[in-house]
């Protein structure tokens, strides 16, 4: 174990923040760390929107949930897949491929993970906001995003005013497989994990509920999520071929 691994393994989503701002030097380090992430084919196909306008923040908070911490956090960053910059440099660039969407999404996630880890190393905390995709066209309009740019997710950052319990992850044996994918799910491991998650939800200090992980994913995957997304992606010049 070392400080880096300790930091990674201590991750918690922070949704309550003090009113203290993030120092400009700290924010600059966080953004430098984000840009230091690996980049597929060195395309650097991402942009980060730093949202400081309180009115836009409040509108984004409503569109994303509502999730009030979007408006309350010291900083709110929106990570975007961006091929508009490439088309400005190379007007004849071939874009719209599904692979480019994957590149933008994967590299954006790598940048955001670097950013959050850097923030945590400075004593800050944060939470990712996938709800940014609940109303993607409205987010595009609010942030003035041109065609070939899509908002992937947001990231709230600030000084934590809570220390929530850590949510247990799946057993490593259910996630890491050697050479070949297993033919069967380990039902005993899943049952143990379901009990662990049920105990966690019942015992945690806020938002208690009676739910297992299996029932949670059944609820999430039992309906189509964001059925408008394909049409939105195509309208922004992604996923065309």
Automatic annotation (TrEMBL):
<comment type="similarity">
    <text>Belongs to the flavin oxidoreductase frp family.</text>
</comment>
<keyword id="KW-0288">FMN</keyword>
<dbReference type="InterPro" id="IPR029479">
    <property type="entry name" value="Nitroreductase"/>
</dbReference>
<protein>
    <submittedName>
        <fullName>Oxygen-insensitive NADPH nitroreductase</fullName>
    </submittedName>
</protein>
<dbReference type="Pfam" id="PF00881">
    <property type="entry name" value="Nitroreductase"/>
</dbReference>
<keyword id="KW-0521">NADP</keyword>
<dbReference type="InterPro" id="IPR000415">
    <property type="entry name" value="Nitroreductase-like"/>
</dbReference>
<keyword id="KW-0560">Oxidoreductase</keyword>
<dbReference type="InterPro" id="IPR016446">
    <property type="entry name" value="Flavin_OxRdtase_Frp"/>
</dbReference>
<keyword id="KW-0285">Flavoprotein</keyword>
<feature type="domain" description="Nitroreductase">
    <location>
        <begin position="8"/>
        <end position="159"/>
    </location>
</feature>
């Amino acid at each position: 174990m070392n400080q880096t691994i300790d930091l990674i393994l201590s991750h918690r989503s922070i949704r309550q923040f003090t009113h203290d701002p993030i120092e400009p030097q700290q924010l600059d380090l966080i953004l430098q760390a984000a840009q230091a992430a690996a980049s597929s084919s060195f395309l650097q196909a991402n942009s980060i929107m730093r949202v400081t306008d309180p009115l836009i923040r409040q509108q984004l908070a409503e569109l994303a949930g509502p999730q009030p911490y979007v408006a309350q956090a010291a900083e709110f960053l929106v990570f975007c897949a961006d091929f508009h910059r490439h088309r400005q440099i190379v007007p004849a660039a071939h874009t719209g491929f599904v692979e480019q969407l994957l590149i933008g999404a994967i590299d954006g996630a790598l940048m955001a993970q670097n950013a959050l880890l850097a923030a945590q190393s400075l004593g800050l905390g944060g939470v990712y906001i996938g709800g940014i995709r609940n109303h993607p066209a409205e987010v595009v309009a609010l942030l003035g995003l041109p065609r070939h740019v899509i908002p992937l997710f947001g990231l709230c950052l600030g000084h934590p005013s809570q220390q929530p319990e850590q949510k247990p992850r799946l057993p490593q044996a259910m996630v890491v497989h050697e050479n070949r994918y297993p033919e069967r799910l380990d039902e005993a491991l899943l049952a143990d994990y379901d009990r662990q998650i049920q105990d966690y939800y019942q015992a945690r200090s806020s938002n208690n509920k009676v739910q297992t992980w299996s029932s949670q994913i059944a609820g999430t995957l039992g309906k189509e999520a964001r059925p408008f997304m394909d049409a939105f992606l195509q309208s922004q010049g992604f996923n065309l071929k």
